[in-house]
From TrEMBL:
<protein>
    <submittedName>
        <fullName>Polysaccharide biosynthesis protein</fullName>
    </submittedName>
</protein>
<dbReference type="Pfam" id="PF13692">
    <property type="entry name" value="Glyco_trans_1_4"/>
</dbReference>
<feature type="region of interest" description="Disordered">
    <location>
        <begin position="414"/>
        <end position="433"/>
    </location>
</feature>
<dbReference type="InterPro" id="IPR028098">
    <property type="entry name" value="Glyco_trans_4-like_N"/>
</dbReference>
<dbReference type="Pfam" id="PF13439">
    <property type="entry name" value="Glyco_transf_4"/>
</dbReference>
<feature type="domain" description="Glycosyltransferase subfamily 4-like N-terminal">
    <location>
        <begin position="104"/>
        <end position="215"/>
    </location>
</feature>
<feature type="compositionally biased region" description="Low complexity">
    <location>
        <begin position="422"/>
        <end position="433"/>
    </location>
</feature>
<dbReference type="GO" id="GO:0016757">
    <property type="term" value="F:glycosyltransferase activity"/>
</dbReference>
Length: 433
C-alpha cells in the first residue's frame, strides 16, 4: 500500500515537531510504503526513520509555473465559487479576494505536483494531509484526476478556527470539507466546530487526539521558597503573552519572598517585541528572573522537564486545538494553568491545575498561579497531570491506533457514492489540463 503524507515543511524546519513522535509508528509498518511530501523544503532536513522516503516534488515553484497556475485559477470555477461565498458572507474585500486567488492557485499547482508524483511512483492509496488546508484541497483534486484513491486529513487549530485567520476567512474550506474520506479532529469540540461552521458531514469526522511519549521520569518541584514557571508558545498576538507578563508582574510583586524564574520557550514574529515588553514590565522585580530560549527542538523541551524543576506550565492563548505543549508538561507531571479555549478542557481541570475563563485577565491568571503554587495538594496535582496523559494522550496507543485506522481505510473498497461532493463540477473543471 502506498501512503503519501503531505506536510507543510516536515522533515524540514521549522515547526511540526509533534510529527516526530508519530512518524516512528508509520515506519514500524512493513506492509506499507510511506513518502513525506512537504510543501516547503529549505535548509537541512531533520532525520527520519530509514523506511520513510522524502520527496520534495511538492515544494513551491516560482516563475512561469506559478504564473501559469495563477492564470488557471482566474478561470477556475473554484475561485469564482469562493468569491460567491465571500460576497454572501460580506467578507469580499481586496485582501480576501487575493487570498482566494492565491489558495486556488496553490491547490491547482500542488494537485499537478501530486499527480506527477503518482505517475512516477504509482497511484497513491491514501494521501494523508497533516493539515486541513491547501494541500488537502490539492489531494482531493488529485483524487478526482485518478492519482489518489483516498484522502484523509487531520485538523488542528490554525487550520480549523476562523477567528485565527485574517478577516476571519478560511480559504476553500467550505468547498472541500465534504469531499474527504475522513477528517480527524483532535477533540469532540473540534468535530462539532467542523460541522457547525463548515458543514462537514458527521459521518466523515473521526476524533483522534495527538499524543506524546510518556516521560520516563517525573519532574520534581522547586525547593521551598523558589518557583519555576514555564510557557511554551510562538510569540504571536493570538498567544496573549502580554497577559502572561502582566500576571507574572502581579504574582512576583505580591510574593516577594518567593524567588521566581520564568522560562519562555518559542520563537515567532514577535519574539523581540515580547522580550522587550518583559524587560520593561518586569524591571525592578528583584525576585524574578526570566529567559527566552527561542525555538527549541522537540528533544530539548523534553530535556527541560527532565533536568530542571518546573512548578507549572502557563498558557494564555485565545485559540488552541489540543496543545501538545500542555501534553508534554503533563506527561512529566507538571500542573497547568490555561484558558478554556478549543480542546484545552479535554486536558486541564481542577484535578491537575486551573482551567481559566476563555478571556482571563492578568489578575485572574496571577490568582490561578497562586492556587497551583501554594495548593495543599500540589503532589496530587502533579500525579493527576501524569495520569491524564496516560489515560488519553499516550503516543504509543494513539498513534498506533491512528496509523492502523488509516491503513484499514486504504485497504477498504472505494466507495464514491458515500462521498458528498457539492463542488464536484468545479473540481473536475479545475483539474482538467
Amino acid at each position: 500500500m502506498i501512503i503519501a503524507i503531505l506536510t507543510n515543511a516536515y522533515p524540514y524546519l521549522p515547526g511540526e515537531q509533534f510529527i516526530e513522535d508519530e512518524i516512528g509508528y508509520w515506519a514500524a509498518r512493513d506492509d506499507i510504503s510511506v513518502t513525506l511530501l512537504p510543501a516547503l523544503a529549505t535548509g537541512t532536513p531533520r532525520p527520519v526513520p530509514a523506511r520513510i522516503a522524502v520527496d520534495t516534488g511538492m515544494a513551491s515553484t516560482v516563475g512561469v509555473g506559478r504564473l501559469w497556475h495563477a492564470l488557471a485559477a482566474l478561470r477556475s470555477a473554484i475561485f469564482w465559487r469562493e468569491l460567491g461565498y465571500l460576497r454572501r458572507s460580506r467578507k469580499l474585500q481586496p485582501r480576501t479576494i487575493g487570498r482566494a486567488l492565491l489558495h486556488t492557485s496553490k491547490a491547482l499547482e500542488q494537485s499537478a505536483q501530486l499527480q506527477r508524483h503518482a505517475r512516477i511512483h504509482g497511484r497513491i492509496d491514501v494521501a494523508y494531509c497533516y493539515w486541513n488546508d491547501t494541500q488537502a484541497c490539492a489531494a482531493v483534486l488529485a483524487r478526482e484526476a485518478g492519482a489518489v484513491r483516498k484522502v484523509v486529513s487531520r485538523t488542528h487549530g490554525y487550520d480549523l478556527y476562523e477567528a485565527r485567520r485574517d478577516s476571519g476567512y478560511m480559504p476553500l474550506k467550505r468547498q472541500f470539507i465534504a469531499a474527504f474520506d475522513a477528517v480527524f479532529a483532535l477533540s469532540r469540540e473540534a468535530g462539532t466546530y467542523l460541522q457547525r461552521t463548515y458543514g462537514a458531514p458527521a459521518e466523515n469526522i473521526r476524533i483522534s487526539p495527538l499524543g506524546v511519549p510518556l516521560a520516563k521520569a517525573l519532574n520534581r518541584p522547586s525547593p521551598t521558597g523558589c518557583l519555576h514557571v514555564v510557557s511554551v508558545a510562538s510569540c504571536m498576538r493570538v498567544k496573549r503573552l502580554d497577559r502572561m507578563i502582566g500576571a507574572l508582574r502581579l504574582f512576583a510583586g505580591r510574593h516577594r519572598d518567593i524567588r521566581m524564574t520564568w522560562t519562555h520557550v518559542g520563537g515567532g514574529p514577535l519574539l523581540e517585541e515580547t522580550r522587550a515588553l518583559a524587560k520593561r514590565e518586569l524591571a525592578g522585580l528583584g525576585n524574578l528572573e526570566f529567559t527566552f530560549t527561542g525555538e527549541l527542538r522537540h528533544s530539548a523541551v523534553a530535556a527541560l522537564y527532565r533536568d530542571a524543576p518546573v512548578d507549572m506550565l502557563v498558557n494564555t492563548s485565545e485559540s488552541e486545538g489540543v496543545p501538545v505543549s500542555i501534553m508534554e508538561a503533563m506527561s512529566a507531571g507538571v500542573p497547568v494553568v490555561a484558558p478554556d479555549v478549543g480542546g484545552v478542557s479535554s486536558l486541564v481541570s481542577a484535578r491537575c491545575g486551573v482551567l481559566l475563563r476563555p478571556q482571563p485577565d492578568a489578575e485572574e491568571i496571577a490568582d490561578a498561579m497562586a492556587r497551583v503554587a501554594f495548593a495543599d495538594g500540589r503532589a496530587h496535582l502533579r500525579a493527576n497531570a501524569r495520569q491524564m496523559i496516560e489515560a488519553g494522550f499516550d503516543a504509543a496507543r494513539n498513534y498506533r491506533d491512528f496509523v492502523a485506522g488509516i491503513v484499514a481505510l486504504g485497504a477498504a473498497d472505494d466507495s464514491p457514492a458515500r462521498r458528498r461532493q457539492p463542488a464536484a463540477p468545479a473540481i473536475q473543471h479545475a483539474a482538467g489540463r
